[in-house]
């Protein structure tokens, strides 16, 4: 067999006759391939396996964590600090009780912890390909050398002849040679829920959609019924499943907005720190006229470098995101990738499936037409609770006998069961028939009761050719309510004269109406006029235009049970009962969720494989689109170039008859337009689009393992409203991240400026050691920052457009706030530092001359507590807020203050951290200066309120 003789792609096998396919693959339908053929083809095509491209190893991921610019600077600081300690140790300049290398050890411990934290977040391997591999069968039966043998699926080659039976998983793509009643479940691949009836004798056009290729089978699908012999046409990465694996691996993961902002933050902080260090060192050298105090200047530089890096920030962000995931799980949104929590807050477009996500995935009758009257039917889901309304007025079934008569037909001509399970109404059987039972229940007609009044004795089952079904029932006498009186139930009294049997027919309205010659009016029948017939057809068209699935109902009295197979003659001269229009009704909570999206500046988009009329009806009902908005079908999309789609994608809110592979193009087109996209999906074919989207959302109930593994988030209830709730939570998380970044970096700037000023204003020594700075950055900053991470949302969080995912972390005034507050911090602390230095160096001072450093340390820490309380709201004064709405902030302030005082008053801690005892006067001065920070921020809020501006 020559490779050149093969078709140019898998897309053409369904367009070939069986014999032509066998010739092209040089195979025999009865004997299969020979052993020699198999060896040659294994070499040519390789094993029937999904191949995985090489990714980063665990070691590479771990090492990448230490390429972070802030961690690299800390490593440099640790090494220089260790070198200075070594010099002091060798020269004997260590103070009594001083532990050498403690700063180095503490800094390196922080570096390692941050590296491990990053590794844990990033090392979760993508398992979408592993889930795809699970869909392949381990063993398969094939004909080789004219014998039926069982082999490992990976040994299959094109040209092999497989034997399939019910329950088997198909191991490769193939062209059917012969089949017997073969049904294959392809839902994982195509999204179609119902099993597909396959036919080997068909020859289909080349452009036939994947789901309509009835003469081929696909790897990863399952045989539900029947048996078949299949010619293997594609194996490994050339199968439809392999193409999905290729697309999955070709989609590159982009850094999330938060990751990009943290990278930018690190670059700015490190660059700013190095510039400031250079200025301080240069200024000190010029001031001293040389390098005689270079060691002191290096110590100042090290302290500044440690001060500028927010060592606790990665941990605080991780905990904040983790707390966000917990809150989302309680709202039925399971977050699989931690950064996705914040990313959700940046979403500008939500692309959603219709069935089960926007709708209930339950057919509900919404309209009934009888005797030229159209009734609206209320109610939700399968619960048999609701009203019939005519022109807005409630109508009881007793007032309109036609409703009762039609409801009897709905209940009797029905193979499903309506029952209550764990407090919820559920259907056993077909959802369409379930909707009819619910309708009958709303009219007071219960199927189990009517089974005794109309006993089924025969039926003509539904078929796709006839497009209808009929049930023949024997009429039983029942108590009529009058004393000792028995007769036919009043609801069907007008159906009969003396006939013992009734036939009820339901199906296509046009075909059922075409076989009807009479119409049921009230409690009697009348000839069906041409005018009535036309009005019924017009009503049918109107229902269909609203996206309803419409069924027509009729009946016929019978003197005897019709013989089997006489449906064509028996289903004539029917009596018309009416039309029933049903829809997979929208979830009631989705309307509010869509409106919330609109208010929040998020555009909802519907993408469905359903009919365009149904799609438009649901989208219009929910407010996703207007009647006049453009709708794009899968066929139209297929004909568009990527450029044309990109030009139209912002104008289209409804995509109908779309196959899963189209979703990837829609996502990419939206992203090229600068949109931040959340995309839902449940099938295997949805996986590339889910991975490409900024937020991939898999369905928890109906979703495949492949789609879940490719996603960032799983909807545990498959509900659109849950996406909106998760988006709200994402915005809250991002707002809180900005809040504690303001809090942490404001103090860091203050620390850096305070440390830098000490040698410049002539104070001896460094006011803060690296260890003390680490304490402030991890504990004094860290604990209140964690508390700020659970701050409740502002009232307007979903009343504004999403912030640009590409905005700087310093955008919207955050950068100016950090610098402004940092300068105020520094001014307050430098003023305290000057006073404390003079105080501790005054004649007659009894304490340690370095006590001024402890006063600086304590003032910075306690000032941060006032900052934490004031920063809870950008605009409201602290006295205007409920202090217990975030009890964690109060707790963090109290605990952190106590811990800080322990460093001053507990001797072992005082020795380790290098602090000195403060008397009550000194502590009081520290607290007084610290309070100025709180007062300043509150005064800023009042000033901005007077000026009519909104804070960051």
Query: In percent, how helical is the residue content?
Result: 40-55%
What spatial form do the alpha-carbon principal axes imply? elongated
Number of helices: 33
Give the radius of gyration.
Answer: 38 Å
β-sheet strand percentage: 15-25%
Contiguous uncertain segments of 5+ residues:
1-5
Say how many strands there are: 30
Classification by helices and strands? alpha+beta
Mean pLDDT: 86
The profile of the biggest β sheet is: 11 strands, mixed
The first-to-last residue Cα distance is 71 Å
Could you list some keywords that capture this structure?
eight-stranded mixed beta sheet, 952 residues, elongated, alpha+beta
Structure description:
The structure is a single chain. 46% of the residues lie in helices and 18% in strands. It has 33 helices and 30 strands. Strands 10, 11, 12, 13, 16, 17, 20, 21, 22, 23 and 24 form an 11-stranded mixed β-sheet that branches. Strands 8-30-29-28-9-25-27-26 form an 8-stranded mixed β-sheet, with helices on both faces. Strand 28, helix 24 and strand 29 form a beta-alpha-beta unit. Helix 9 packs parallel to helix 26 and helix 13 packs antiparallel against helix 14. The longest helix has 41 residues. The relative contact order is 0.09. The N terminus is likely disordered.
């Amino acid at each position: 067999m020559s490779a050149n003789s093969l078709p140019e792609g898998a897309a053409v096998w369904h367009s070939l006759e069986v014999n032509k396919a066998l010739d092209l693959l040089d195979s025999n339908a009865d004997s299969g391939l020979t052993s020699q053929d198999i060896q040659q083809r294994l070499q040519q095509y390789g094993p029937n396996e999904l191949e995985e491209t090489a990714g980063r190893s665990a070691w590479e991921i771990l090492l990448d964590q230490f390429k972070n610019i802030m961690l690299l600077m800390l490593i440099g600081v640790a090494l220089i600090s260790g070198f200075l300690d070594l010099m002091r140790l060798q020269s004997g300049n260590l103070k009594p009780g001083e532990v050498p290398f403690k700063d180095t050890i503490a800094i390196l411990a922080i570096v390692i912890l941050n590296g491990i934290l990053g590794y844990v977040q990033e090392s979760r391997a993508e398992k979408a390909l592993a889930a795809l591999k699970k869909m392949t069968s381990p063993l398969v039966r094939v004909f080789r050398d004219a014998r039926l043998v069982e082999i490992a699926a990976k040994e299959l080659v094109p040209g092999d002849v497989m034997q399939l039976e019910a329950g088997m998983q198909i191991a490769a793509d193939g062209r059917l040679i012969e089949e017997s009643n073969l049904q294959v479940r392809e839902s994982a691949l195509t999204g179609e829920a119902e099993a597909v009836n396959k036919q080997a004798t068909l020859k289909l056009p080349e452009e036939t959609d994947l789901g309509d290729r009835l003469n081929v089978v696909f790897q990863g699908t399952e045989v539900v019924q029947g048996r078949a012999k299949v010619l293997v046409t594609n194996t490994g990465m050339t199968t439809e499943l392999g193409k999905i694996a290729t697309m999955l691996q070709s989609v590159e993961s982009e850094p999330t907005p938060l990751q990009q902002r943290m990278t930018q933050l690190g670059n700015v902080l490190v660059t700013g720190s190095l510039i400031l260090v250079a200025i301080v060192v240069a200024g000190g050298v010029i001031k001293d006229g040389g390098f005689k105090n270079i060691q002191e200047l290096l110590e100042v530089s090290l302290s500044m470098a440690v001060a500028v890096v927010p060592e606790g920030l990665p941990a605080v962000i991780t905990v904040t995101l983790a707390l966000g995931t917990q809150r989302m799980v309680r709202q039925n949104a399971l977050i699989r990738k931690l950064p996705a929590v914040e990313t959700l807050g940046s979403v500008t477009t939500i692309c959603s499936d219709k069935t089960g996500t926007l709708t209930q995935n339950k057919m509900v009758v919404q309209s009934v037409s009888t005797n030229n009257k159209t009734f609206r039917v209320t109610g939700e889901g399968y619960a048999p609770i609701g009203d019939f309304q005519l022109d807005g007025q409630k109508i009881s079934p007793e007032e309109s006998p036609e409703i009762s008569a039609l409801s009897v037909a709905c209940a009797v001509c029905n193979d499903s069961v309506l029952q209550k399970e764990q407090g919820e109404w559920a259907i056993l059987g077909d959802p369409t028939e379930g909707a009819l039972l619910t309708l009958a229940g709303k009219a007071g007609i219960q199927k189990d009761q009517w089974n005794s009044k109309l006993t089924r004795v025969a039926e003509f089952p539904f078929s796709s050719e006839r497009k209808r079904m009929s049930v023949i029932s024997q009429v039983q006498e029942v108590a009529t309510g009058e004393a000792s009186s028995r007769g036919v139930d009043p609801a069907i009294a007008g159906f009969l004269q003396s006939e013992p049997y009734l036939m009820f027919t339901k199906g296509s309205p046009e075909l059922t109406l075409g076989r009807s010659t009479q119409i049921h009016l009230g409690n009697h029948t009348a000839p069906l006029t041409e005018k009535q017939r036309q009005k019924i057809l017009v009503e049918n068209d109107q229902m269909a235009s609203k996206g309803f699935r419409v069924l027509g109902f009729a009946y016929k009295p019978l003197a005897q049970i019709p013989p089997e197979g006489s449906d064509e003659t028996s289903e004539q001269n029917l009596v018309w009962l009416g039309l029933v229009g049903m829809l997979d009704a929208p979830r009631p909570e989705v309307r509010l969720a869509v409106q919330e999206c609109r208010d929040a500046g998020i555009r909802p988009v519907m993408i469905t494989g359903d009919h365009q009329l149904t799609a438009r009806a649901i989208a219009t009902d929910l407010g996703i689109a207007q009647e006049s908005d453009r709708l794009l079908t899968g066929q139209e999309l297929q004909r568009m170039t990527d450029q044309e789609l990109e030009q139209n994608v912002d104008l289209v809110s409804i995509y109908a008859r779309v196959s899963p592979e189209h979703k990837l193009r829609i996502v990419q087109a939206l992203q090229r337009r600068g949109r931040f996209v959340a995309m839902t999906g449940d099938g295997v074919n949805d996986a590339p689009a889910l991975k490409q989207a900024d937020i991939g959302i898999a369905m928890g109930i109906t979703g495949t393992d492949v789609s879940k593994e490719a996603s960032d988030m799983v909807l545990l209830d498959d509900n659109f409203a849950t996406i909106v709730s998760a988006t709200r939570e994402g915005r809250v998380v991002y707002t809180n991240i900005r809040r504690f970044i303001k809090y942490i970096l404001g103090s860091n700037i203050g620390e850096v400026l305070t440390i830098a000023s000490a040698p410049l204003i002539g104070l001896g020594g460094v006011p803060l050691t690296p260890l003390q700075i680490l304490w402030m950055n991890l504990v004094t900053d860290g604990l209140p920052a964690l508390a700020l991470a659970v701050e409740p949302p502002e009232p307007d969080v979903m009343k504004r457009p999403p912030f640009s995912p590409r905005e700087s972390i310093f955008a919207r005034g955050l950068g100016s706030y950090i610098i402004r507050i940092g300068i105020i911090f520094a001014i307050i602390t430098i003023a305290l530092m000057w006073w404390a230095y003079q105080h501790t160096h005054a004649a007659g001072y009894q304490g340690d001359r370095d006590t001024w450093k402890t006063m600086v340390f304590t003032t910075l820490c306690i000032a941060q507590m006032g900052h934490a309380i004031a920063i809870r709201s950008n605009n409201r004064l602290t006295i205007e807020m409920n202090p217990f709405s975030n009890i964690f902030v109060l707790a963090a302030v109290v605990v952190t203050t106590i811990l800080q005082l322990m460093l001053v008053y507990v001797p072992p801690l005082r020795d380790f951290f290098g602090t000195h005892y403060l008397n009550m006067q000194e502590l009081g001065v520290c607290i007084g200066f610290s309070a100025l920070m709180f007062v300043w921020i509150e005064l800023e809020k009042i000033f901005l309120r007077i000026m009519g501006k909104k804070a960051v």
